[in-house]
């Protein structure tokens, strides 16, 4: 029997945590042959609710779940951790400036980065879900100098899945007919969902839709889908976010299918003119457990402008975080 993989979930008592933990414990994160031990990290006020979730996990009698630890101490949570899903974050509240938001999150992600640096297993893989996800991942990575930077990633897979669904709906094709779609940049309203390199049944996706739809409906709909969910559901997306986190980690560990790619925010090596070192979304494949940027794609003028705008936002966030002494 294989040893259990230690999976840390921060913000475990929150709504994404509730949608995520049962799927991890059922084997959907790592596959049906890998037992998991869950580590739930919460703030002190969240510990009791996390204990309640643990009771329910127990009641599912998942054969792959080998144990659950609950703590409010990051060092304890990340000791020996193999996978970290960093979901808990400080949300933007009314009147909060970007600097305040980044500072508050620095107070969460820098200590978690230090805890990862101190005790995580050598194969640690981090996915940051909590917003502002890309820059929170950068903060955590900077606080973990002994962990290779490429182990810190941020989630744009929900945006990717939203874009797939919108395009499939528009063209009335099954989702499986669509390949090579990309989200570029920041997980924010500036993100750029790229159809110019995407294919539907092997043919250019952009050529099958009109430019007005692409520019005025598709791009804003995908970028503002989070706000649409809040408006209609009365709460922010949770199950779909948890689903995307599962997709991201599953593909990272198990590999992406031949002839296709996915989107993930990973540290830039300067590809496609994206400022080196920021954690930005790219077209990626996973080979032998490592994300690789898909190289050599054509970036037309329309795409260039939008990628540059989102990257500029990430560079500004990095500058703001630097000014706070977090990098
Ligand atoms: P929630 O408010 O329901 O839950 C957050 C939980 O995190 C709470 O239980 C809270 O006690 C806990 N928490 C706060 N600070 C913590 C810390 N320092 N350590 C451990 N736990 C801590 O929020 P929800 O809906 O689960 O969302 C979580 C985050 O995910 C938010 O930042 C949200 O913006 C983000 N998100 C990101 C998406 C993406 O595509 N990247 C999509 C949807 C949400």
TrEMBL record:
Residues 156-323 form the Lactate/malate dehydrogenase C-terminal domain. The keyword S-adenosyl-L-methionine does not apply. It catalyses: (S)-malate + NAD(+) = oxaloacetate + NADH + H(+). NAD(+) binds at residues 11-17, 105, 112, 129-131. Substrate binds at residues 92, 98, 131, 162. InterPro entries: L-lactate/malate_DH (IPR001557), Lactate/malate_DH_C (IPR022383), Lactate/malate_DH_N (IPR001236), Lactate_DH/Glyco_Ohase_4_C (IPR015955), Malate_DH_AS (IPR001252), Malate_DH_type2 (IPR010945), NAD(P)-bd_dom_sf (IPR036291). It comes from the Bacteria. Pfam families: Ldh_1_C, Ldh_1_N. Residues 6-145 form the Lactate/malate dehydrogenase N-terminal domain. Keywords: NAD, Oxidoreductase, Tricarboxylic acid cycle. One of its GO terms (biological process) is malate metabolic process. The active site is at 187 (proton acceptor). Its EC number is 1.1.1.37. It is an enzyme of class 1 (oxidoreductase). One of its GO terms (molecular function) is L-malate dehydrogenase (NAD+) activity. Belongs to the LDH/MDH superfamily. MDH type 2 family. Catalyzes the reversible oxidation of malate to oxaloacetate. This is Malate dehydrogenase. The gene is mdh.
